[in-house]
Design a protein that fits this description.
This protein is mainly alpha-helical and about 475 residues long. It has 2 domains: about 10-75 and about 315-450, no CATH class; about 80-315, no CATH class. It contains 23 helices and no strands. It is a multi-pass membrane protein. It comes from Mesobacillus selenatarsenatis.
Length: about 475
């Protein structure tokens, strides 16, 4: 997508008008009409095609721009499919059921939502993947929350907050590496500098989650114990079922590629499932990688929690991601995004305006294209020179890229992360957004740093107040 050439040049005002109408239409379709996001996005694509034809752009060029846009998401699509296979294989091997069993043990004290936030943060930091953390640990906590009658929306908000704190701060995370490398900052200098906004966001979120945690007297622990007993009776709780998780963590620490790591975790789980599953059912195991694992315990609630995963479960996510990225390709071809970015970068004499514009750019790309990698790359390339002219160290920009780019993606219903999370957690994006405190606080704190100058590092050259 980045290599596309725009067919026309637009004024910033016209580009802004196109975006406002586009987002208003998508928002109306999803919120007011309660349509599946595919329909409003497809309507947006159709509107942009008509707009392009009115601008005398050939249909063949518009088609190619959509193809180029969709190509940018093929890497994410493959990861989606591998995670789908991972989840189903980990169900069969008892990995996720074992994690659910131990997650049940964690809720013997107070502060349930705070515990969810802390655990997912630690796991996210350890493996550097927000999506894997959410798909495995997050699913376990959603199971606990549903069992005890707690709010699924708040639980999902805690999962998303913790998982993306890890994604943002882990040296194993691809977005962390991408943000630092895009603006040529040392990786660990970048992580250290992010602590100025991350640590306050963490503690504020922790206090909020702790204060919202329900009283234990409201929880039905008898039901919880029943589910634990049923899991044990299903022969799904074993220490060796956690071997795939250990393999995943080790490969992530060694910075092995995501696809190889997920593939190894799936293969290990399939091998272990030969021990867990009765021999007469071995022939069904390869099929679950596509259709997903189906639990037949007889306990309706437990079966609904465990019956998930498979490549097929990712089709909703994959189709929406490809549509959103195709729309992004059209926005590039029509010159809408280039005009907006140029307009943002056109008047950047003051540091607060510079920080605000770069943050707005990262947020805007997330909403327009739904892809966090492009929000980092486009914003970094656009504003790198302006930060240098302002006498600001580039690590200030790399922090903005994460605070307003990486952690905002899961809050966009049609984004790569938003679609995936709503699918695996079973909670819609709009439901968990108000409770994804860490993701909401991060851009606010990075803007506060820009407007106050606190924690901003100068290079000593051409510094502007």
């Amino acid at each position: 997508m980045l290599n596309q050439s725009q067919s026309i040049k637009l004024r910033t005002s016209e580009a802004a008008a196109v975006i406002i109408l586009l987002l208003a239409g998508i928002g109306y379709g999803m919120i007011k009409l309660e349509l599946m996001p595919h329909i409003p996005v497809m309507t947006g694509i159709g509107s942009l095609i008509i707009y392009g034809l009115l601008k005398k752009i050939k249909m063949s060029e518009l088609e190619q721009s959509m193809i180029d846009g969709a190509k940018a998401g093929l890497g994410a699509v493959m990861i989606f499919f591998f995670i789908g296979m991972l989840v189903s294989s980990w169900m069969a091997a008892g990995t996720i059921p074992t994690l659910i069993y131990f997650a049940f043990e964690l809720v013997t004290g107070k502060w349930f939502y705070a515990i969810v936030f802390i655990v997912t943060s630690v796991i996210g930091l350890s493996i550097g993947s927000s999506l894997t953390t959410s798909a495995v640990i997050g699913v376990a906590f959603i199971a606990v929350s549903e069992t005890l009658g707690f709010s699924l929306a708040i639980t999902a908000g805690a999962v998303v907050s913790g998982a993306f704190l890890g994604d943002k701060m882990s040296p194993l995370s691809d977005t962390t590496v991408l943000a630092s490398s895009t603006v040529k900052v040392d990786l660990f200098d970048h992580i250290k500098n992010m602590s100025w906004t991350t640590v306050p966001a963490f503690f504020i979120s922790l206090i909020l989650f702790a204060s919202m945690s329900p009283e234990l007297s409201s929880a039905d622990f008898t039901k919880l114990q029943t589910l634990q007993n049923t899991l044990a009776e299903m022969n799904l709780i074993h220490w060796y079922s956690l071997i795939p998780l250990a393999i995943l963590a080790i490969l992530a620490l060694k910075k092995v590629s995501s696809i190889l790591t997920l593939g190894a975790g799936t293969l290990a789980a399939m091998i272990i499932s030969l021990v867990v599953v009765q021999q007469k059912d071995w022939g069904t195991l390869p099929g679950i990688l596509y259709t997903g694992y189906v639990s037949e315990s007889g306990n309706e609630q437990l079966d609904s929690l465990l019956s998930r995963g498979g490549m097929e479960s990712m089709f909703f996510s994959v189709s929406l991601v490809l549509l959103a990225l195709s729309m992004g390709g059209l926005l590039f071809k029509l010159g809408v995004l280039p005009a907006l970015l140029q307009g943002l970068a056109g008047s950047l004499e003051k540091v607060p305006v510079l920080i605000g514009s770069s943050a707005l750019s990262a947020i805007g790309v997330n909403f327009l294209i739904g892809e966090q990698y492009l929000s980092i790359i486009l914003t970094g390339n656009t504003f790198e020179g302006h930060f240098e002219k302002a006498g600001l160290h580039p690590k200030n920009l790399s922090r903005v890229l994460e605070d307003a780019g990486t952690v905002l993606n899961p809050l966009v219903p049609w984004s790569v992360c938003g679609v995936f999370l709503s699918s695996v957690l079973g909670v819609s994006t709009l439901e968990y957004v108000p409770f994804a405190f860490f993701c909401l606080l991060s851009p606010v704190l990075t803007l506060a740093a820009g407007f106050t100058g606190i924690t901003l590092s100068k290079t000593g050259k051409n510094a502007v107040a």
